[in-house]
């Protein structure tokens, strides 16, 4: 599909060769996903976008600063970043430019998926090489933009980051409940009772231990400004979460879910305290930067993979409050989606059989118009639902959020290298503190909501 799309657009041997190589690479990765993890075709496409984003971000964070140092000698010849001395544009500014490039590509794919036809399928599943070059092209073009433009984009990234932060909290809460329910189901199987009983106890104790360790770190140092208030509120909220879980106010509540979510809430509190810019005892040294960036990046990656592997429609149905009528409608929608996936898989098997049988393009063009129309409709079967639309919307928000993750909510100067981008700031402190409190409220509400709204299903 990638080679066909490229030949239509470029009509030259170079681009066709590039797209052929891209298609071969994609086919190899897809085969690996199928054999190793049993991923469906839909999941493979989504994982492809996630891998693409991860590679770009790693290059921007790890490679660009070294490139900037290597290119310093070019300043002797008057070669520098557009409008600047040196190559500082390969630092923090490059992260914002790359973010906007990734978001722009996903906006284009999102608009193509709105068509819900063979065009949607071609753009979403193909053109991988073109998408990569589009991100690179937008990135280079933005280096020539005025700094004021990127500065304004920083505020857009901040607002989108808060939205992503809230969605991430909800996803982690859903993941915590799903994880607990799945392991309890496996524990109830007689053959696996001992293994999963041990895992339930071990993981819960391990996460409790990490939570206590982070709380101790929080209280080991000073209490300047609002830090003492943040620590006290955190302890009260964690204790309340534990009491509501232990008394069994919600049958779905479990110590594993509590341990998982309390660890996340405590991590946010610790990260907020280390981000306080006026503290004389807390500093973001290199180990702290590395830990916060790795954990933050892993949480984003877990979120995206969870969205790719888990049906987004099903995820939305899990986190929203439903009536009985809503439950029936969602059940029908899920059945229709499963039928679409089965039909899509059958179509792929038929195409593979035709290729193995040696059917050439001339024979394919000999099909009657009615058969061609039916074939095009069958190819777009998976695009009648909003699954891909939701996915690309999430990818757009994630792309815009990434600079906030790497720069600690925009606390660094544009001329810093990306290694020095993670700095304390008041914005980071209050966003993370509020995030810790809101996450706790989400968990408490998930426990007490079934008792308050008895006519709804959760």
Explain how this protein is built.
- The chain is mainly α and 458 residues long.
- 76% of the residues lie in helices and 0% in strands.
- The protein has 17 helices and no strands.
- It has helices spanning 2-10, 13-37, 41-70, 92-113, 118-125, 128-143, 147-187, 193-220, 227-246, 255-274, 286-309, 312-319, 324-356, 361-365, 369-379, 387-406, 426-452.
- Helix 3 runs antiparallel to helix 11 (286-309) and helix 10 (255-274) packs antiparallel against helix 17 (426-452).
- 33% of the residues are buried.
- The model is unreliable at 1-22 and 370-380 (pLDDT under 50).
Q: Counting H and I runs of at least 4 residues, what is the number of helices?
A: 17
What percent of residues adopt helix (DSSP H or I)? over 70%
Structural class: mainly alpha
Rg (CA only): 25 Å
Distance between the terminal alpha carbons, to the nearest Å?
A: 42 Å
The major β-sheet equals: none
Low-confidence stretches: 1-22, 370-380
Reconstruct the topology from this structure:
Blueprint lengths: L1 H9 L2 H25 L3 H30 L21 H22 L4 H8 L2 H16 L3 H41 L5 H28 L6 H20 L8 H20 L11 H24 L2 H8 L4 H33 L4 H5 L3 H11 L7 H20 L19 H27 L6
Helix pairs in contact: 1-2, 2-3, 3-4, 3-11, 3-16, 4-5, 4-6, 4-16, 7-8, 7-10, 7-11, 7-16, 7-17, 8-10, 9-10, 9-17, 10-17, 11-16
């Amino acid at each position: 599909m990638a080679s066909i799309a490229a030949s239509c657009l470029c009509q030259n041997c170079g681009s066709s060769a590039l797209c052929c190589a891209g298609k071969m690479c994609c086919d190899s990765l897809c085969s690996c996903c199928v054999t190793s993890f049993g991923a469906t075709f839909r999941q493979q496409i989504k994982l492809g976008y996630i891998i693409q984003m991860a590679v770009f971000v790693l290059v921007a964070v790890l490679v660009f600063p070294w490139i900037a140092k290597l290119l310093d000698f070019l300043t002797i010849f008057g070669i520098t970043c557009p409008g600047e001395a040196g190559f500082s544009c390969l630092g923090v500014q490059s992260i914002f430019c790359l973010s906007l490039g990734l978001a722009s590509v996903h906006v284009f794919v999102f608009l193509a998926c709105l068509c819900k036809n063979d065009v949607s399928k071609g753009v979403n599943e193909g053109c991988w090489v073109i998408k990569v070059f589009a991100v690179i092209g937008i990135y280079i073009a933005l280096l020539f933009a005025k700094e004021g433009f990127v500065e304004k984009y920083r505020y857009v990234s901040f607002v989108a980051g808060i939205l992503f932060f809230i969605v991430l909290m909800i996803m982690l809460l859903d993941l915590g409940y799903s994880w607990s329910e799945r392991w309890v189901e496996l524990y109830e199987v007689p053959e696996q009772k001992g293994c999963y009983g041990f895992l339930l106890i071990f993981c819960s104790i391990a996460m409790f231990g990490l939570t206590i360790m982070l709380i101790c770190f929080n209280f080991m140092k000073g209490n300047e400004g609002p830090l003492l208030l943040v620590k006290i509120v955190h302890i009260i909220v964690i204790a309340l979460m534990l009491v509501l879980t232990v008394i069994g106010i919600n049958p779905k509540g479990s110590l594993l879910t509590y341990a998982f979510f309390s660890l996340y809430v405590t991590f946010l509190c610790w990260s907020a305290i280390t981000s306080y810019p006026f503290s004389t005892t807390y500093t973001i040294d290199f180990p702290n930067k590395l830990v916060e960036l790795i954990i933050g990046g892993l949480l984003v990656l877990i979120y995206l993979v969870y969205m790719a592997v888990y049906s987004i429609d099903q995820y939305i149905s899990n986190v929203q409050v439903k009536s009985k009528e809503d439950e029936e409608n969602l059940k029908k929608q899920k059945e229709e989606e499963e039928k679409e996936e089965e039909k899509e898989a059958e179509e792929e098997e038929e195409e593979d059989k035709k290729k193995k049988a040696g059917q050439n393009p001339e024979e394919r063009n000999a099909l009657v118009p009615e058969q061609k129309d039916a074939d095009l409709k069958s190819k777009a079967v998976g695009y009648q639902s909003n699954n891909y639309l939701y996915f690309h919307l999430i990818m757009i928000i994630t792309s815009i959020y990434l600079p906030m993750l790497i720069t600690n909510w925009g606390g660094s100067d544009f001329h810093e290298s990306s290694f020095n981008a993670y700095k304390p700031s008041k914005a980071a402190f209050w966003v993370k503190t509020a995030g810790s409190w809101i996450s706790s409220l989400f968990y408490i509400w998930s426990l007490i909501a079934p008792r308050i709204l008895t006519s709804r299903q959760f």
